[in-house]
Amino acid sequence: MKMFFTVLLCTLFLSSCKDDDVTPTPDTIDVVGLTYSTSTKDFKTTDATIIEALESAGPIRIVTQVNHRANALAVDKELDSTKVIIFGNPTLGTPLMQANPLVGLDLPQKLFIWKDAKDSTRVGFNNVSYLKSRHGLQGVDALNTIHTALTNFVNTVGNGSFIPNNADSISKGEGIITKTSTQNFDETYATLVAAIKGNKNLKLIAEVDHQANAASVDLELTPIRLIIFGNPNLGTPLMQNAQTTGIDLPQKFLVWEDTDGNVMVSYNDPSFLKDRHKITNNDEVLQTITGALNQLSDIAIGN
């Protein structure tokens, strides 16, 4: 079976896939920067097929898989099948972070799988239009390869039709809160990890050392590390209201150092996620998340 996917992916990666070739269906989901397709398989088979495809794709490594529905059930909440697979290839991701370290907040890449209210299984990803607009990326060759790769992975289960919601409306740095630390990089990072681990309501899910990953493929990068963590009691209500929010969950902190040695902590502003996914009737939850992220980041920077 793995040989089948290896041959399939080699064939797909040699083919070209442009946004102009896709045909929208009437049943569209309007989320800025989200490209998605409808799977021809059920949720479980879609998930298994994509996992096998990723595992067969050479330099790609799956960082973590987050089953939002299982996490919701663990706290006695209901949610349709919803999952995000986080994976990366530092050969492609590093050039983006060399152009703008803040891209590390949206890396590694994500494939988002969800079964909607109509029992249709969808597979989506943050498209290169989103990365270009949000991080001011222009002329980075890796973006074309990333687009083709993401599209081809979805094509292992998709119906061949994509909805490519563009992100022209997003400005550079939109929805990103950044604070400057009074501590050095290692102290800032360790303080933040300890604060997350010390909070009984939070679960540390994964840590990604972008700089070390870059070095593993003989590329240079300033210190950049990503912390992925979550609280399904707070995240689940957002997905119950707007299921696509799951592509931006769990929460993330990016600790990074610029070329002048300044250390920063960055994260997604919950109000940006509210607007992007059109979340309604969850202002209290969003305020709680906003307060928690603000408090954790203040601890990390030494305030």
Question: Main traits of this protein?
Answer:
five-stranded antiparallel β-sheet, 11 helices, 303 residues, alpha+beta
Question: Which percent band covers the strand fraction?
Answer: 15-25%
Number of helices: 11
Note poorly predicted spans.
1-26
Helix content: 25-40%
Question: What is the element string, with H for helices and E for strands?
Answer: HEHEHEHEEHHEEHEHEHEEHH
Biggest beta sheet summary: 6 strands, antiparallel
Rg from alpha-carbon coordinates: 19 Å
Identify the quaternary structure here: single chain
Structural class: alpha+beta
Number of strands: 11
State the end-to-end distance. 53 Å
* Spatial sequence of strands, sheet with the most strands: 2-3-4-5-1-6
Mean pLDDT metric: 92
Shape: globular
Please provide a written account of the structure:
The structure is a single chain. This protein is 40% helix and 24% strand. With 303 residues, the protein is of the alpha+beta class. Strands 2-3-4-5-1-6 form a six-stranded antiparallel sheet. A five-stranded antiparallel sheet has the order 7-11-10-9-8. Helix 4 packs across helix 6, helix 7 (185-197) crosses helix 11 and helix 9 (232-241) packs across helix 11. The radius of gyration is 19 Å and the shape is globular.
